[in-house]
Amino acid sequence: MKIIDCHHHYWDPRVNPHPWLTDRPMIPFRYGDYSAICRPWLPEDHARAAAGWDLVASITMEGEWSPADPLGEARWMARLAQEQGTPAAHVGQIWLDRDDCAKVLDGYATLPLTRSVRHKPRSTPRPGMGPGGLADPAYLAGVAALARTPLMFDLQCPWWHLADLARLREVAPDLPVIVNHTGLPADRSPDALVGWRAALEQAAGMGTVYLKISGLGLPGRPWRLEDNRDIIRTAIDIFGPDRAMFGSNFPVDGLCGSFDTIFSGFDAATRDYGAAERAALFHGTAARVYGLDPV
Predict the structure, then answer these.
(1) Predicted model pTM
(2) Does residue 295 belong to any structural domain of this protein?
(3) Which residues belong to any copy of the Amidohydrolase-related domain (predicted)?
(4) Is residue 294 part of a domain?
């Protein structure tokens, strides 16, 4: 099976500014202690992790480079792609509610490797605690500016804020949105999963919305198919193979399992799907959405 890893990182905190990887004390993190990933993760590391899989292309995600230089990581990634042939596309950093948003968007026009941008909106710790940053007028003004460019929008927020996509659609009805990390279903209690499924169904009905099935690790336990199979299949049922894609979230999800464990889990969870459906999930959807050469 050819695969495109639709969501992972490259970073080198020895020479580049990633405060969360270098500063101490470490920040609160959903997987707990992340000291094991506070080191360089470069193309050779990713290739080594993916050994045994036919990894034909990679899409890198912004890795919280210093917000003082929002274009710096994308420029570094473009140099990396020129020198090493990877990544095939990049999702850049943006701060939609800052005064420099338009200037940064103009900067991305000179960096064609960057196909999408991400700014994680402010979120609440639990459902029912009010709207998150996705409903903020300043944030939405940045979304409207983004919609006037060729870029897409990668959205990472807990599932209980996906309803605010309706506000986004008011200012950017045609902006392609890629929901990251399966909507973050970290709470696997029955009530939470009912809410997660309803949120994904609502998001899937809002036009050009896609889903990255990734980031499924659970704190304090290894990545296991028995924990994630139903999540994977429910997500595919809702979005369909033509709007869903698989990503490793490496090196972050390396805290939960190996690359082989995670992609073997995707493989096992979809073994009874048709060949065309599996081809879409493993590489076709990512190639089409992010404008990569056919594989």
Answers:
(1) 0.97
(2) no
(3) 4-292
(4) no
Helices (H) and strands (E) in the chain, counts: 11, 8
Our count of domains for the chain comes to: 1
What residue has token string 């979120």?
A: 123
Is 217 within the bounds of a domain? yes
Q: Which residues pair with 57 in a beta bridge?
A: 4
Q: In sequence order, which residues have a C-beta less than 8 Å from that of residue 83 and are 6 or more positions away?
A: none
Q: List the one residue out of 260, 293, 263 whose CA is nearest residue 281.
A: 263
Q: What CATH number is associated with residue 21?
A: 3.20.20.140
| Residue-range definition of the domain harbouring residue 150 | 2-289
Let me know if residue 118 belongs to a domain: yes
Which amino acid belongs to residue 86?
T
Residue 147: how many other CB atoms lie within 10 Å: 17
Query: Strand 177-179's sheet: what is its strand order?
Result: 2-8, 54-61, 89-93, 114-118, 152-155, 177-179, 209-213, 244-246
